[in-house]
Design goal:
heterodimer; A: Rossmann fold; Alpha-Beta Plaits; 2 domains; 11 helices; globular; B: MetI-like fold; 0% strand
């Protein structure tokens, strides 16, 4: 487990302390994919670097599996870092080394000298990321997605328990992003390692994360399970992120619907509820009319969800709402 | 080309073997001083880089001191540096004359220059690559050996070429105060003795040498380029 207790960070600029992260406490559980989302400058790069102490906190405690990180000596810190993989937006591969040597690099740093063992581990990693055919190439000969796969293989070389992803897909096109995220999800499933990723795209969070923290101007303004945060964002910044990931009306902003008669409702379905014909049944039973204004059905990681904004009219609306809630549908009333 | 025709072209040159020996002396001075320059200048450049502002082992005072020494040595014209260093040269090489006597001042003149080129080449290495190595648990020594130097290889080789060419110029200047080599010939026969054919031959040989150095340097850089 990664535990932050009252951690804060400020930088000294021209003799003045400029806060980068306000005091926060946060636990990241073993084996989960934890997303940190924020705009540039919100402090997310700083936050993720606190985990492997590339950035030192100005105060507070950072513990990994019970070990206090901030007081480790240099040697102990280096050996701890070997068990924390990290991948980067711009890949940061050694341009003078082949793909195989890039992946072998952390093994050699950790003191592995046996060429046979290195070769075997490199082969295994190349297969995992699907780059068997590219071992002898140099990074400059690879596409962005392939470079990130090399980065992932390199990060996994020393069998880390944590993988840090610093905007790992921000330099990639949508299709490549999807395939890299899929690879990360697969690694998380099969190797059971904890992934902490930072991003400015809600879509990345929706696809792979279990939990998310929203960072705004150095402050964690909201955090929780992705489905909760995604379906019921509380903070304005979170709403903005969610809206970016959705077609604008689907987010259910009230403004466009002031002319629509009836009560404006937002229904959220999660999991099984997404596939049951509850809405039609309740409408029939209670005699209400409804009019769908916006909607979307998709998945949050593996969880299917749906969100509909609709206008409901008729005498039985209250009764209908009770029945819908009973069917496991979350309802927010946007107007009356 | 037969000897008589050479004699008509260069009437003052009656001992071509002397020119051959001067060539060898120049090459020995160049080789010896370049080797020592790299041996001293490379670590010095790495130290400049590491102690610089915002770098891995930032030490502002150490950097300022090193930087000052480097700047002082670089600002003294080489011909004066050679004369100033005569006593030190005698201690280091046992003589102030010939190839041996030339190497200490050549190295002291060129190493700070090379160190700056090394520092500049290392600064070209992407910060992210260094950060990634730190994240992998690399020590500063490992980063220098396995990341900085290999990643800056092209710049370092180009810097070595530039330094070698500067050293060719320095060896020629060294000729004026008893270092021997092509510069010595050009100075003694060509300048003091008004034998312009000596001047012409030595200058052409120096041009050829510089061209060769640049060509080899460029080839090696291209060979190691991974872009």
């Amino acid at each position: 487990m990664i535990r932050f207790v009252d951690v804060h960070k400020s930088y000294r600029v021209d003799g003045k302390d400029v806060p980068a992260l306000q005091p926060f406490s946060l636990d990241i559980a073993d084996g989960e994919v934890f997303g940190i989302i924020g705009h540039s400058g919100a402090g997310k790069s700083t936050l993720i670097r606190l985990i492997n102490l590339l950035e030192r906190p100005s105060g507070g405690s950072i513990q990994i599996d019970g070990t206090e990180m901030t007081t480790l000596g240099e040697l102990a810190l280096r050996s701890k870092r070997r068990r924390i993989g990290m991948i980067f937006q711009h890949f940061n591969l050694l341009s003078s080394q082949t793909v195989a040597d890039n992946i072998a690099f952390p093994l050699r740093l950790a003191g592995e000298r046996d060429p046979g063992r290195i070769a075997a581990r490199v082969d295994e990693l190349l297969r995992r990321v699907g780059l068997e055919a590219h071992a002898a190439k140099y990074p400059a000969q690879l596409s962005g997605g392939q470079k990130q796969r090399v980065g992932i293989a390199r990060a996994l070389a020393n069998r880390p328990s944590i993988l840090l992803c610093d905007e790992a897909t921000s330099a990639l096109d949508p299709q490549t992003t999807a395939s890299v995220l899929e690879l990360l999800a697969e690694i998380n499933r099969e190797l059971k390692l904890t992934i902490v990723l930072i991003t400015h795209e809600m879509d990345v969070v929706r696809r792979v994360c279990d939990r998310v923290a929203v960072l705004d101007a150095g402050r964690i303004v909201e955090h929780g399970a992705v489905a909760d945060v995604f379906l019921h964002p509380q903070h304005p910044t979170t709403r903005r992120f969610v809206n970016e990931a959705l077609p604008e009306e689907a987010a259910g902003e009230l403004a466009p619907y002031t002319q629509v008669p009836g009560r404006i409702l937002r229904l959220s379905f999660r999991g099984e509820a997404t596939w049951t014909p509850a809405l039609g049944r309740v409408a029939r039973d209670t005699g209400v009319d409804f009019n769908i204004l916006a909607g979307r059905i998709d998945r949050i990681k593996e969880l299917p969800y749906g969100q509909l904004t609709l206008a409901m009219q008729g005498d039985g609306v209250d009764q209908a709402l009770v029945a819908l809630r009973a069917a496991g549908i979350e309802i927010e009333e946007l107007s009356r | 080309m037969s000897a008589p025709s050479l004699h008509t072209l260069f009437p003052n040159i009656d001992d071509w073997a002397e020119i051959g020996r001067a060539c060898i002396d120049t090459l020995l001075m160049l080789g010896g001083s370049l080797l020592m320059t790299v041996v001293i200048g490379l670590p010095l450049g790495v130290l400049l880089y590491l102690t610089g502002k915002g770098q891995l082992r930032a030490m502002p005072k150490c950097y300022a001191a090193l930087s000052l020494v480097v700047n002082i040595l670089r600002s003294i014209p080489f011909i004066i540096l050679m004369i100033v260093l005569l006593p030190l040269t005698f201690v280091l090489a046992g003589t102030t004359l010939g190839v041996r006597g030339a190497i200490p001042p050549l190295v002291i003149g060129a190493a700070p220059f090379f160190a700056r080129l090394v520092e500049t080449a290392l600064r070209e290495v992407q910060r992210g690559v260094i950060e990634a190595s730190q994240a992998m648990g690399a020590s500063t020594w490992q980063i220098v050996c396995h990341v900085l130097l290999p990643e800056a290889r092209g710049g370092l080789i180009a810097g070595t070429t530039v330094t070698a060419i500067a050293l060719v110029g320095y060896t020629a200047m060294g000729g004026a105060i008893g270092a021997g080599g092509l510069g010595d010939l050009a100075y003694r026969y060509g300048y003091l003795g008004y034998k312009s054919d000596y001047m012409l031959v030595t200058v052409v040989l120096l041009i050829v040498l510089v061209q060769l150095l640049q060509m080899v340097g460029d080839r090696v850089v291209a060979h190691y380029s991974r872009y």
